[in-house]
Amino acid sequence: MKRRHPLLRGSAVLFAGVAAVALCGPTAQAAPSYAGAEDNYAGSQIAKHEGVGGVPHIRYSAEDQVLGHDVSGHQGAVDWPSTAGAGAKFVYVKATEGTGFVNPQFAQQYNGSYSAGLVRGAYHFARPDVSDGASQAEYFLAHGGGWSNDGRTLPGALDAEYNPYGDTCYGKDSATLVAWIRSFSDTYRARTGRLPTIYTSTSWWKKCLGNSPAFGANPLWLARYNSQVGELPAGWPRQSIWQFADQGVLPGDQNWLNGPLTLLRDLAIG
User: Which pLDDT belongs to residue 65?
Assistant: First the structure.
């Protein structure tokens, strides 16, 4: 019986160990989660963290104010002629989240609202935990988040709110989040010529961005479910849109424009 030379036996053992490492490879990072992304919409996490107390959900007056709303895949297909008949003048529609989710109802909601005569815009649910701001702006633009100077398209909006997947501030400090939003905003402006609207709540902005005053030039879409607008985040002297209730006469969340119809046109054309 032939016996293998001791050195050859050692080489075989070494090769087997290297092969095992090669097969296993480095530990792969888990893919970002988008579980439940269809139910993440403007204010979904704000309502969970801040509540909706004191909100006139159903009965309110639209006199001398411009009523609008926002929708996402959470609402499904929207009856736009009925929505317009109920008084809606504008709508923001969720387009994307992170760099891995597109609202399956986006075309029906975005195009349908336009056909019914509403001024419409798209928004992006920010995920600073999965990729940088510039990449998410590009993803948003590639999936419906663009802007056109037709007088009926609002600038794209960035939905910056509580993390539905974990740490409230996405595991980032305030300086990092300020830089992330700046990257998104600058990329969007470079591609469209418009600063994106920023959607947020004062409480989240204070907690996660240290109440940064850096974005006062961006239109503010404020979430606060109450009968008064209340305190604004630093840097903004006024809000452009106030999301005042999470339900009402229109599908989705209810919004007031902070001014007359002429302001809505001004916001659309920049």
Answer: 74
**What is the predicted pLDDT for the residue at 64?**
60
Domain containing residue 113: CATH number: 3.20.20.80
* Domain contains 217: yes
Domain extent, residue 121, equals 37-269
Please indicate whether residue 70 is annotated as part of the active site. yes
Q: Is residue 11 part of a domain?
A: no
DSSP of the chain, one letter per residue?
Answer: -----HHHHHHHHHHHHHHHHHHH-SPPPPPPP-TTGGG--TTHHHHHHH--TT---S----TTSEEEEEE-GGG-S--HHHHHHTT--EEEEEEEETTTEE-TTHHHHHHHHHHTT-EEEEEEE--TTTS-HHHHHHHHHHTT----SSSSBPPPEEE----TTSSTTTT--HHHHHHHHHHHHHHHHHHHSSPPEEEE-HHHHHHHHTT--TTTTSPEEEE--SSS--PPPTT-SS-SEEEEESSSSSSSEEEEESS-HHHHHHHHH-
Structural domain contains residue 250: yes
Q: What pTM was estimated for this model as a whole? A: 0.86
Q: What is the structure's pLDDT at 249? A: 94
Give me the average pLDDT of each 10-residue run along the chain (270 residues).
44 40 48 88 89 55 78 96 97 98 98 98 98 98 97 98 96 98 98 98 98 98 94 98 95 95 95
- pLDDT at residue 17, as a whole number: 42
Q: Is 153 within the bounds of a domain?
A: yes
Catalytic residue among 70, 97, 138, 246: 70
Catalytic residue among 97, 161, 246, 253: 161
Number of domains making up the chain: 1
